[in-house]
Design a protein that fits this description.
Blueprint lengths: L1 H5 L5 E4 L6 H30 L2 H4 L2 H27 L5 E4 H34 L4 H4 L2 H27 L8 E2 L6 H5 L7 H32 L5 H29 L7 H24 L2 H20 L1
Parallel strand pairs: 1-3
Antiparallel strand pairs: 1-2
Length: about 325
């Protein structure tokens, strides 16, 4: 520990990014700028639609959806703007403090989203398997408590990660073969043996992702089995809702498990996988929930008509 404390820290890191080709970078700048605008706008549209619709806001499912959309918008904002702006520069620099902030934000919002997805699965389980007791179980107080637990869980997870990372000595080189600050790429730059630290990352992030993912799959398995006793109409509606949830869960957890539950190799494929859970998943989630949900589409249409009426009156 004394040797680690005597090491001088680097003041900044340099990203290699997704490509070093100027022409490709110009194209990627346009693509990811468009992706971020759509991602942030669509997630905030869901938030505004639900908040402005008392009927939807009173439903626990849409109450959780609001926070899922806020988390998706936050995850995208923690990663995409910096990466997009970097496409305009040959040297992609981030300060040490900025790198730690990005790392903290990614794991804070990611950890909170993991818990929100779990609470949404529990909500669907109660709604489908215990419909007569749904309103007495999923009270607004319980929903608020579960959301509070998600924020607290995300804070605890990210705090552990940042404390762990700050213990590492960074004395050079300072080039990160990635487009963002994350645990495994930073471990490669540490001036010490990081084998034990790598195992801790797998235990803290990878193992948790696997356990939660398996629990979610089991819970949805119970839900699907219980649908045998529902009418064909009720079965189809429940399958549609659960199908959306399962798609979102798979899009979030599978890339995370691939990233954190296995040894880091530094391959380009790992960057592509990182794009899924940090950028593409927040983009696809709003589409999955709105395109397959009649209530959301109806509420959006009513809100749009209200906005048009207000605009005409002016």
């Amino acid at each position: 520990m004394e040797t680690m404390q005597n090491q001088s820290f680097v003041s900044e890191f340099i990203f290699l990014g997704l490509s070093q080709n100027p022409n490709i970078q110009s194209l990627l700048f346009i693509i990811f700028l468009f992706v971020y605008i759509i991602t942030f706008g669509s997630n905030m549209m869901i938030v505004v639609t639900v908040v402005c619709s008392p009927k939807l806001l009173a439903s626990p499912m849409y109450f959780f959806l609001v926070f899922l959309s806020l988390l998706d918008a936050s995850i995208a904002s923690a990663m995409t703007p910096k990466m997009t702006v970097d496409f305009l520069y040959k040297r992609k620099i981030i300060s040490f403090g900025g790198c730690m902030t990005q790392l903290f934000a990614a794991h804070f919002f990611g950890g909170a989203e993991m818990i929100v997805l779990t609470t949404m699965a529990y909500d669907r389980y109660v709604a489908i398997c215990k419909p007569l007791h749904y309103s007495s179980i999923m009270t607004r107080r319980l929903c608020g408590t579960l959301v509070g637990m998600a924020w607290a869980g995300g804070l605890l997870h990210s705090t552990v990660q940042i404390i762990f990372t700050l213990q590492l000595p960074f004395c050079g080189p300072n080039v990160i073969d990635h487009f963002m600050c994350d645990l495994f790429p930073l471990l490669e730059l540490a001036c010490t043996d990081t084998h034990i630290f790598g195992l801790l990352v797998v235990a803290n992030s990878g193992f948790i992702c696997i356990v939660v993912f398996l629990l979610l799959l089991v819970s949805y398995g119970f839900i699907l089995l219980s649908l045998r006793f529902h009418s064909s109409e009720g079965r189809w509606k429940a399958l549609s809702t659960c199908g959306s949830h399962i798609a979102v869960v798979v899009l979030f957890f599978v890339p995370c498990i691939f990233t954190y539950a296995r040894p880091h190799t530094g391959s380009s494929f790992e960057k592509i996988i990182a794009l899924f859970y940090s950028i593409l998943s927040p983009l696809l989630n709003p589409m999955i929930y709105t395109f397959r949900n009649k209530d959301m589409k109806s509420a959006m249409w009513k809100l749009w008509k209200k906005l048009i009426m207000v605009s005409d009156e002016r």
